[in-house]
């Protein structure tokens, strides 16, 4: 099956992000399409089928939140050996759902997507929790009786004390109730794209990856306005001086009313980019 062109892929991603109930797995797989020239519609279907297959191996309605968490840990963490490790932070594949399904390895947030999508298909009350520095999953009522589990550690259950230690170890601050708020599909996708941007930022030769991660982020209904500035600077860095300068000027107009000094700095950057054409 032929691979979709850039315009078609971006349009499909934007449309999927604007659905009333966005399909988290599909959005993650469309991110994978940007990174992997070998991923086509057949590959996307195969990944969805694999999630269905894994869900079919769960026991029917095992019980409450603790039983659901234990059932997922036995299936995914033990039987299929999904888990993470320090090396995963150095691999782009660790942020791509189809590769995580193939390799059984990934970043905390992608492993959590696998847990959530498999559990959801089996009827579990599951949701994602974006703790600072570690994405985990919750089972049950997020505002009542619930259990947290850490897919990066094979689905290990997390007590309140465990969660607090994860947060304090990353940020040095105590765990707050607001940190336990369920993350929506679009929040999760934006966080995945942020991870990809961070991976590419540490590798100056991969501005191509950083650019498409920024551009996908800009297609989400809600995103930080400063991403427009990042895209403009990337275009300049990649040699598209005219387009980059124009987008820097557009961004300066947006921020001028609230940050006039910052707007003037951006305008100077735009003038410098245009000067590179001479």
From TrEMBL:
Q: Which Pfam families match?
A: TPR_9, Transglut_core2
What is the top-level taxon of the source organism?
Bacteria
Coiled coil: which residue ranges? none
Q: Which InterPro entries match?
A: SirB1_N
Question: Where do the Protein SirB1 N-terminal domain residues begin and end?
Answer: 48-194
| Family classification | Belongs to the UPF0162 family.
Q: Supply the name of the protein.
A: Protein SirB1 N-terminal domain-containing protein
Q: Native species of this protein? A: Streptomyces hygroscopicus
């Amino acid at each position: 099956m032929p691979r979709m062109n850039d315009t078609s892929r971006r349009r499909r991603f934007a449309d999927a992000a604007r659905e009333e109930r966005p399909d988290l797995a599909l959005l993650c797989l469309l991110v994978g399409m940007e990174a992997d020239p070998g991923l086509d519609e057949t590959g996307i279907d195969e990944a969805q089928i694999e999630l269905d297959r894994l869900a079919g191996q769960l026991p029917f309605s095992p019980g409450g939140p603790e039983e659901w968490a234990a059932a997922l840990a036995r299936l995914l963490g033990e039987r299929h050996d999904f888990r993470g490790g320090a090396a995963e932070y150095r691999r782009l594949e660790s942020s791509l759902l189809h590769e995580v399904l193939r390799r059984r390895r990934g970043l905390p947030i992608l492993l959590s997507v696998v847990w959530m999508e498999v559990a959801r298909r089996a009827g579990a009350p599951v949701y994602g929790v974006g703790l600072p520095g570690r994405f985990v999953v919750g089972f049950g009522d997020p505002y009542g009786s619930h259990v947290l589990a850490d897919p990066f550690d094979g689905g290990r259950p997390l007590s309140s004390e465990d969660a607090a230690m994860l947060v304090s170890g990353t940020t040095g601050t105590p765990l707050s109730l607001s940190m336990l708020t369920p993350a929506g599909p679009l929040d999760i996708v934006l966080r995945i794209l942020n991870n990809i941007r961070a991976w590419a930022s540490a590798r100056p030769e991969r501005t191509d990856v950083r650019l498409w991660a920024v551009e996908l982020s800009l297609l989400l209904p809600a995103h930080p306005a400063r991403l427009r500035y990042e895209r403009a600077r990337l275009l300049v860095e990649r040699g598209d001086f005219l387009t980059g300068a124009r987008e820097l000027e557009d961004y300066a107009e947006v921020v001028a009313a609230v940050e006039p000094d910052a707007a003037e700095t951006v305008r100077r950057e735009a003038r410098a980019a245009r000067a590179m054409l001479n």
